[in-house]
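Support request, please re-run this one:
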Amino acid sequence: MSRVCDLTGKRAMTGNNVSHAMNKTKRKFSVNLVKKRFYLPEEGRWITLRVAASTIKTINKNGIAAVLKKAEQEGFISLK
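Re-run finished. Output below.
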């Protein structure tokens, strides 16, 4: 299973380690993924998603229904 957020599609980014002598070597910035259960009151059921920590903050702010609707519009998930 790849390390991708289910709702936003966030993936690992690449960059450089830079030493004191300015030598550069490639490195990877991983996404802070969390496996989390969310309750959908409209449907009366729980869903489990792997989401980034920043996405959990967005869900707390906007609500799970609004975030799921936006993710479906952007093509990251398909409801039903």
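Helices lie at 53-62, 64-74. The first helix runs from residue 53 to 62.
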